[in-house]
């Protein structure tokens, strides 16, 4: 019941935020737009400003200065802790890229996705070499990955175009509402887990019967156990289909009949994969119930009825849309949701990161085809994030093993989301107020003329 409430809250918040745009759009739709390109000096670095379809792009040059050093530190810390919780850290990258480095908001969102991709790829690889904390099964829950992934991909292809259209004030509202909700729920979950771990430690100490750990596996043995070639291939083929469609769309005229046809063909691809996995889980759950088999189909503890399967699909769609729109990574929705449905923190982190690896690369591809970020800056930040993602996973795993408290992962997840909500929310409010004071346009942009 808590899981249903969590998803319904997110959907209601999104609907309310989207509805509120009509009022402000009507009141503030007569502002002036900047249309002339020019070269501007942003403190101590050269910045190229260029107006494209009524929207101003600001791309600082990649040169050594205190701004780049600060961004590098944030990228390292954000990637290290963000990937541990399975969220990527995009909520910390966006304020740094806009406020400190000087990128415009939408280019910063695209660069944030590049950084998340670097951290996610290295973290996913590391997780594949780590064994499950308490069972002889893969640490990545492939059933849930296949259930979420089609809707994540579909949501990404919806969210990225919305990031071109939506005004910044509306994005700020969504950030505050969604991130505060997921952060608070994760924090409550972390406290409950901490108490349970404390009770278990006291119980084990009183009985003098410590739990026997699983036999240690080598990284190669863990990799062979964690890598399910069949289901990985299904995810990879689906990813190839979506990527191919984005590449073909780039070669077609924007908003032409062929363009929209390619856009809508993604729906049957996603639905077919989702339908296959839904039917598999539902039939297996029904078969086990008839046989009196209480063994779970996957790591989740929820009942796999039609309602809960639909909720999972909607959460995947919501996560992908929010990730593409905000440039923050779908993990801000998927990570807390996986904990809500009963996954262990280590498994939730590994599964969320694994799923994000596919969806975030799709998002980066879309941003690249839209020419949303400078390549040199993106490559540099991706390399920093890759190193940090691997190092963060290694450090936190050691800490969890030493302390015997997996709730640390959930506290980190909650903290990263809260920090993202505060930084992005405050900066978004300040920028939105400034835009209103200057009388600038604050409504929706036209998608067809803003590519």
Low-pLDDT sequence parts: 16-46, 208-212
- Helix segment tally: 15
Question: Reading side by side through the largest sheet, how are the strands ordered?
Answer: 1-2-3
How large is the radius of gyration? 22 Å
Number of strands: 3
Main sheet summary: 3 strands, antiparallel
**What is the CA-CA span between the terminal residues?**
42 Å
Order of helices and strands: HEEEHHHHHHHHHHHHHH
**Average pLDDT figure:** 77
Question: Per the principal axes of the C-alpha atoms, what is the gross shape?
Answer: globular
β-sheet strand percentage: under 5%
* Percent of residues in helices: over 70%
Structural class: mainly alpha
Structural overview:
The structure is a single chain. The chain is mostly helical and about 450 residues long. Helices cover about 70% and strands about 5% of the residues. It has 15 helices and three strands. It has helices at about 1-25, 65-85, 90-100, 105-130, 140-165, 170-205, 220-225, 230-250, 255-265, 265-290, 305-325, 330-340, 345-370, 375-405, 405-435, and strands at about 40, 45-50, 55-60. Strands 1-2-3 form a three-stranded antiparallel beta sheet, with no helix packed on it. A hairpin with a 2-residue loop joins strand 2 (about 45-50) and strand 3 (about 55-60). Helix 12 packs antiparallel against helix 13. The model is unreliable at about 15-45 and about 210 (pLDDT under 50).
